[in-house]
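The data layer described in this paper is built around a simple, fixed record for each protein. Because each token names a local backbone shape, the row as a whole describes the fold. We quote a single record here, exactly as it is kept in our systems:

***
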Amino acid sequence: MHTKMLVYLLFFLFEISAGTTEFPCKFPCEWRNKTFNIYEAGKPTYTWKFSSDGETSIVSNSVQLQCHQITERFLIVRANQGNQFICYAIFYDTGSPVKFQFSTHNSRGFANQTGEFTDLCGVCDINGFNGEPSVTVYEAVESGTPATSPPVNSVPCNIPSTCTSGIPCDTSDVIPKDCMDTTTESPTSTTEETATITEATTTTTAPTKPKRHCRKKQKHSK
């Protein structure tokens, strides 16, 4: 009994230390079916359009990015359904759904990658191909909304909690969804009318036979 409880506790602690993972993933609901203008240092650079199903997006009307995995605050996408993956550190607050900041890492090639990434340090490595750290900070702003002024040029962390080359984020960091991805049918309440039938109770009194009064016979004297 105690051994099983210890095993469950260790498993629970491992899950917490490893961070929360969503695989396969979907983009946050507030992003879906919207187009965001992407700013670097306050200047517009490209657009990022999200589909209504939350599974795919398109950058600059040419590159398709499919939501592959979300772990902690890190979004990993697959580019053009191929072997190239890009990791984003997302800083998004549902209280301000029309804007979010992110840092992006260089795309990495992973042949035959179909499952989730268990080691994020490879795909979310901030080091460039020359071995030097390379982190670019962007701001995504919904089309028709002004960008933040002065521009956002930094983020508090840039690598997963289990990595060391950079500024680790916290294991409790998440990308809020603010929605349910599962389709839930609206419950239908059916009220059945209950008919209360009160049967009339007829009280029948059985006829009683009239009482017979016995008269005493009188004796006649002779």
In short: The chain has one domain: 21-180. The first helix runs from residue 2 to 18. The beta strands are 21-22, 35-40, 43-50, 56-59, 63-71, 74-79, 84-92, 99-104, 108-109, 136-142.
